[in-house]
Design a protein that fits this description.
Strand content: 15-25%
Largest sheet: 4 strands, antiparallel
Radius of gyration: 10 Å
Number of domains: 1
CATH class: Alpha Beta
CATH topology: Alpha-Beta Plaits
């Protein structure tokens, strides 16, 4: 499990786009998004760099917390 900070995630539309990007990366990926805290918590053994790359491609740079 790991947590990423996504400072450019500011609205529900952002959450929708992030959901789409993560589901395209891995259909059964388990994650929680906390919009007010601007965090994404991933409950999987997927490589963090793959998640960060998918988020960046979607326009949402992320930093490991």
């Amino acid at each position: 499990m790991f947590t990423l900070k996504i400072e450019t995630m500011t609205c529900n539309h952002c959450v929708s786009l992030i959901n789409k990007a993560l589901n395209q990366l891995q259909a059964d990926l388990a994650f929680d998004i906390d919009l007010p805290a601007q965090t994404l918590q991933v409950h999987s053994d997927i490589d963090v760099s793959d998640v960060i790359a998918a988020l960046e491609e979607a326009g949402y740079p992320a930093v490991l917390q």
